[in-house]
Amino acid sequence: MKRILVLIMMSVLLVIVGACSDSNVQGSDYESDGNSVKIGSIHPLSGGLAQEGQEMRDAIRLAIEEVNEAGGIKSLDGAKIELVESDHEGLAEKGVTEVQKLDSAKVVGIIGTYSSGVALPATQEAERSGIPFVVDIGSADEITERGFKYTFRMQPPATSFSKDFLTYFEEINKSTNTPLKTAVIVHEDSVFGSSIAKAINEQAEEYELEVLATLPHSAATADLSTTINKITSLKPDIVLSTTYLRDGVMLVEGLQNTKFTPKAIIGVANGAFSNASFITDEAAANQNLMDVNYTINPKSEEATKVKEAYLEKYNKHLGPNAAYSYMAAKVLIDAIERAGSTDRTAVMQALEETDYTDHILPQDTIKFDEKGQNINARAVLNQIFENESKVVYPEEYQEVEYVYPAN
Amino acid sequence: MSLELFLQSLVDGLLMGGVYGLVAIGLTIIFGVMKVINFAQGALMMLGMYVTYWLFALLGLNPYLSIPISAIVLFFIGVGIQKGILSKMMDAPEHNQLLVTLGIMLFVENFALVLFKPDFRSVNVDGMPTTLSLLSININTGKLIAFVFAIVLTIVLFWFLKHTFLGKAIRATSINRQGAALLGVNTNRINYIAFGLGAGLAAIAGSLITPFFYTSPDVGSAFILKAFVVVVLGGLGNVLGALIGGLVIGIAESLGGVFLPGSLKELMTYLIFILVLLFRPNGMFGGKVK
């Protein structure tokens, strides 16, 4: 009996370990033949953020495939890039252990993490081990505020989102005869939502926006009715929302089920409003939602090609998250190419000198400041029309005219 | 604060409490009979949601009509888990049983992730309005139906445990396993039925949740922790207690959200949990399956 028990325990443990490390150290499609360069990807491939994480991982796979098919890294005799994928499940503590695993897998650089809460400890661990870390998505300001040498970020940081939102708000508010004045901020309560909400609160007054209330919630909550009840009793002109996917959908659907319709629902770096599956979801009748967010440059021809390749390969639309992951991979590979070496310090120094022009983001060239922040990164104002999210502001990237106030 | 906001929150809390109670009922039965803390309950609920989702997506079946199907499918999965895995562990120390159910949870969730992808999937019931208005209070139809089901299900279970032979055998086993066995109750069989019943109830909860909550492999985690609190609150193994415990948590959370600033409403659940553990460690009503 005892032996059977041990056997069962062992197999269960194996299952647990297997389930957790499912994709931890998995090679890419390319055989390692000694002449390859490993880079690591660390995203939430399981857990509540798995959908976003897997989309981002796929984009990195695409970028690597393109480089490999075009002959690999030329300065390293055509070395092929090999992707080591790891899964942080949205858990901060896993972020650290996964970086350690990638370290022992001898990756030259790491791309990650989508969640700010994971990016903070993960980049710290990477800094300690001296591994270049390109943060594709992760908005908390602190990520690049700690004087790290090995951390670089593609995405605009949280405070710049709120700044971008407020400037766009001021501009488009001028263009209407019925300017909007009051807002309620709804945000998820981890460092991501909280930092954006805090930044808006601090500056709102300068832009003549009155914040009636700030309502945080846990992204994992099963119920948002209290938040919705508070909104309907305050009756703000604008509902500002920084959420992840599930809670964002709950908020919008919940609001639609009440008699109160805000004049505008505007996301700030909203994880739902820019999510491909939310935008095309029939259940979310979501006409004219706005979102100040990082996205793809709609006017870039290069972007159209990437979108098509992504759609063909994975049968899903390239979302903004995935686009940033794609560019993060390209930027890291570009640095390895220029470094001509797999030495991590050399790659870090090459990253510092990045000047990437031929990209798919709505910004000037990709360059990092001394803190590692992509200096030209900016958010744009998107609006959802009939199952498609279009850039409406600023004008240089505008696809269509905005509708404001939306209701 | 306006009266309207108060009433609205009260109604929302009550309805959500019914849903929490619903999720907790299966858990409390499994614990009551087998003394096994089933971490996999949320994962089993998730499977029930997927049964409902796929019947809807592939055959267009109304989610409420798929309740018996998902309940039966999960009943047999539950029996299978009990027969194949847990029955071999019944004499093992409790923490080992805990690890096994945790393992099952991880396995089932990751299995679903591989099989169904992490996509969020939703089900719309044709012709059913999402909200009803009553005296300027909005009532979510899906939650209302789940709430009514929770009450009906509790009454049916209560009656079943009290008045049928099988029910009495289950109660006997939960009170004194050896005594029940001596009197001719096949306690192994009772274990299969109890776990199957628990899994089936999880599936019913899942089916009732699909019309108003997104289905995804990790959906169980949004409910399972609350379900544990509810079970302890209502008294381990007490079916009626689970429903009332659910209502208490639902209302506390909802009103907590109105009165407390920020995310402190999450605190309410655990505050109540700690208070109950301190002052009434056997739950609000104490005791076993009654």
UniProtKB/TrEMBL annotation, chain B:
Keyword check for 4Fe-4S: no
Bilayer-spanning residue ranges: 6-31, 43-61, 67-86, 98-116, 144-161, 192-215, 227-255, 267-285
Main subcellular location of this protein, as a coarse class: membrane
GO BP field: amino acid transport
GO CC terms in record: plasma membrane
Annotated GO MF terms: transmembrane transporter activity
Similarity-based family: Belongs to the binding-protein-dependent transport system permease family. LivHM subfamily.
PANTHER family: AMINO ACID ABC TRANSPORTER PERMEASE PROTEIN (PTHR11795:SF445), BRANCHED-CHAIN AMINO ACID TRANSPORT SYSTEM PERMEASE PROTEIN LIVH (PTHR11795)
Protein name, entry field: Branched-chain amino acid ABC transporter permease
